[in-house]
User: Which sequence fits this backbone?
């Protein structure tokens, strides 16, 4: 079928709209009409080479839409279902079998191999130009910067038809990453303290999640006063403006010592060290933000040796269905208002949306697909 997609032609190239051909769903696959898809920092760094996606290709990995067709053998979703497109995984490696598909042994291939991960056409792209030239697909299993996406059906998360599809896409990655880092990884206990470094969309989702936990001190650290104000609105009990304050010293003052948990949402290496230094003996520092490829960090050996944990998290951990379903329900109950972070753009305005996100003008840009697509 014919689709409209935002194509990256080569490394560092801009997004350009093009008409492409998309395969019909084969065994185990589903065709999703994309209603809207979030723009994530990962999309931007991928087109600049920090993830090895082959080009020309279509990015986008926070898609939500409606199932229009399913291939042979699909039983988990039906035509007409409203879905968020979750991360792909092989389903058979040890991590997948143990309930941690975010850490699938074939993760690199699944996220940015440029083609299908599974099925009889594994490794093949589902996209091509009208003249037959291949365009790489299946970024994070979806390539949702397009009017339609072909996904592995088992990766889809069915959501209630009452849920607002236009804003649900970020639950596939960015928003789920922040919230899942709290729910699945940190799991703060009664009376604990948690500090969030960087309160963009991911960090604010973490603050919202921390508010739903029994933590009694929720500290937000950023250099932007407007974001710190939002953090207070969404649950932070304390804020630190890192522009002119040593955040580690400030955290220790607020907590009367080190914090129990720190979430690092920026990917800025000096900030990573600050987050690690904010927690002490038996404390946990959770690394969330994506640093440039090849980035390295250093830690103080002795204080890390004293029971400190440095833990990375991808996509919030756990299973997509459980985490996304929980966040949809919490949002419907008014307890997780992530939709307030979203600003909508039309697909042709993708470069403007990226520019606004990078400048900090918007927290979470989401692209709407053309009506009738």
Assistant:
């Amino acid at each position: 079928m014919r689709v409209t997609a935002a194509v990256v032609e080569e490394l560092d190239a801009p997004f350009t709209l093009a008409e492409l051909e998309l395969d019909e769903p084969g065994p185990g696959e589903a065709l999703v009409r994309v209603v809207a898809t979030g723009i994530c920092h990962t999309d931007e760094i991928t087109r600049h080479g920090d993830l090895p996606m082959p080009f020309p290709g279509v990015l986008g990995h926070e898609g939500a839409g409606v199932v229009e067709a399913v291939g042979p053998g699909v039983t988990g979703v039906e035509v007409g279902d409203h879905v968020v497109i979750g991360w792909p995984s092989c389903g058979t490696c040890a991590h997948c079998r143990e309930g941690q598909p975010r850490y699938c042994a074939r993760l690199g291939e699944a996220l940015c191999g440029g083609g299908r991960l599974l099925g009889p056409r594994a490794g093949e792209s589902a996209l091509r130009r009208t003249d037959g030239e291949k365009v790489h697909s299946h970024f994070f299993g979806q390539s949702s910067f397009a009017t339609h996406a072909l996904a592995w059906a088992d990766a889809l998360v069915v959501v209630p038809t009452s849920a607002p599809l236009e804003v649900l896409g970020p639950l596939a990655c960015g928003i789920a990453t922040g919230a899942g880092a709290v729910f699945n990884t940190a799991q703060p206990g009664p009376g604990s303290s948690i500090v969030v470094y960087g309160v963009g969309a991911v960090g604010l989702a973490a603050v919202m999640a921390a508010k739903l936990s029994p933590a009694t001190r929720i500290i937000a650290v950023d250099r932007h006063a407007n974001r710190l104000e939002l953090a207070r609105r969404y649950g932070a009990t304390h804020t630190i403006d890192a522009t002119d304050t040593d955040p580690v010293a400030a955290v220790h003052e607020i907590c009367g010592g080190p914090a129990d948990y720190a979430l690092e949402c920026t990917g800025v290496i000096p900030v990573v060290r600050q987050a690690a230094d904010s927690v002490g003996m038996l404390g946990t520092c959770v690394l969330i933000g994506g640093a440039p490829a090849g980035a390295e960090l250093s830690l103080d050996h002795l204080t890390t040796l004293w029971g400190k944990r440095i833990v990375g998290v991808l996509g919030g951990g756990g299973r997509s269905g459980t985490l996304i379903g929980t966040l949809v329900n919490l949002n419907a109950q008014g307890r997780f208002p992530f939709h307030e972070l979203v600003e909508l753009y039309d697909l042709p305005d993708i470069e403007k949306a990226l520019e606004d996100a990078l400048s900090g003008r918007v927290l979470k840009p989401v692209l709407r697909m053309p009506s009738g697509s």
About this structure: The radius of gyration is 20 Å. The chain has a mean pLDDT of 95. Residues 175-312 form a domain with the Rossmann fold fold (CATH 3.40.50.720).
